[in-house]
Design goal:
0% of the residues lie in helices and 41% in strands. By secondary structure, the chain is mostly beta strands. A hairpin with a 4-residue loop joins strand 17 and strand 18. It is globular, with a radius of gyration of 18 Å. The two termini are 29 Å apart. The relative contact order is 0.11.
């Protein structure tokens, strides 16, 4: 596991992209499977979110095999308190998620699986698909009716944060790409990827609408915030500036 590290239920966990997390010591020794997170044996996202107040961990599992998408909640002691399947039309590449105090947000976007790519020499069969509809999935934290919100075509590798507003809306900030992993016309290689910018979605649950707004011109990735503000209104975020597709250089504070 080489994507993320977090602490939950007394365990320090190294997270992989869709694989099983590995418990490690503070000296970075490999300890193996977490003794208290039995549900992790089925694999989990590398970017689960931990509520700083309740210490619940919200997770998802995205797979190219059915069930394509599952959402879950892990209690503060590491036991699984919720595991539900979310219906999607086809498997998609999902890397990150967001939480508020009341809901979780999952991403069903334009990058999906195309297994014919394996016969053309690609190692990972994922690419941009114009026919897909980019959508935000908003689900009550502990299960319930799933709400879907269509958004402009895009890909989101990493999210910043989300939070509930007093008016009942949800503010959701991300690093957004206008497209990603788009194949060349001959289908043998990828076009250059564009770079991401800070983007905000304001989700109105009552009217079932979402407004989109670009928040900055700098190209960024790997956004982070103070984890004590996860799922709550926040003042600052930090990101890595990415001046070109070949380099990441500099830290930006918004």
């Amino acid at each position: 596991p080489n994507v993320n590290i977090l602490q939950h239920a007394g365990q320090l966990l190294a997270m992989a992209e869709g694989g099983q997390p590995v418990a490690i010591s503070r000296e970075l020794e490999t300890l193996g499977q977490s003794p208290v997170h039995a549900s992790f044996s089925r694999g989990v996202t590398a970017h689960p979110k931990i509520d700083p107040v309740t210490q619940e961990m919200m997770v998802f599992r995205s797979d190219w095999k059915k069930p394509w998408l599952q959402y879950g909640v892990i209690a503060p002691d590491g036991t699984e308190s919720l595991d539900v399947e979310i219906s999607v039309p086809a498997p998609a590449m999902m890397h990150d998620m967001a939480i508020t105090e009341s809901h979780s947000i999952l991403l069903d976007l334009n990058v999906g699986f195309d297994f014919s790519m394996l016969q053309k020499g690609f190692r990972i069969p994922i690419c941009w698909q114009d026919a897909r509809q980019s959508r935000l999935c908003v689900i009550p934290r502990h299960g319930g009716k799933v709400a879907w919100f269509d958004i402009e075509p895009c890909f989101i590798q990493h999210v910043v944060n989300a939070y509930d507003t007093p008016s009942g809306k949800i503010v959701f900030d991300v690093a957004r790409y206008p497209h990603y992993f788009r194949l060349c016309p001959d289908g043998r290689s990828f076009l250059p990827n564009p770079l991401a910018v800070l983007w905000r979605y304001t989700i109105d649950m009552s009217s079932n609408t979402v407004a989109e707004q670009q928040l900055g011109d700098l190209n960024i990735e790997l956004p982070r915030l103070n984890d004590a503000k996860m799922g709550r209104p926040y003042r600052y975020l930090y990101a890595v500036e990415q001046p070109t597709a070949e380099e990441m250089r500099g830290i930006v504070r918004y």
